[in-house]
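FIELD: query
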Amino acid sequence: MGLRVRDLAINGFTRNPEWEQRKRDQDRLTVLDTREGAYIWNQYLDPKNRAYWRAAELKTLAEIVELRNRMYPNEAANIRRNETAQRLLKEYGIEELWNCLPESLFTLPHNLSR
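FIELD: result
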């Protein structure tokens, strides 16, 4: 139908800077995703310049990660926690980490025990 939010505003429309920034970030993310895909294709189509296209892809990927971290901070924090947990598991193993947990974690509080 072609209606926009501005068309529905009866007494004028006040712009929300946060919403507009989010929209710009979403548009930028779409452009970066498309560009990254093009760089991947160029690595295949132009084998002589594969190193150049790979470097361009990695640079674009770094921009994508930075933008996603800004747009979705909770998701970014979850990814960092998961990476830390995986690193600790790989370094120490599950048995050693399990033995480091305090005993109070495995006992019920006195008001819950029967």
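FIELD: remark
The chain has a mean pLDDT of 87.
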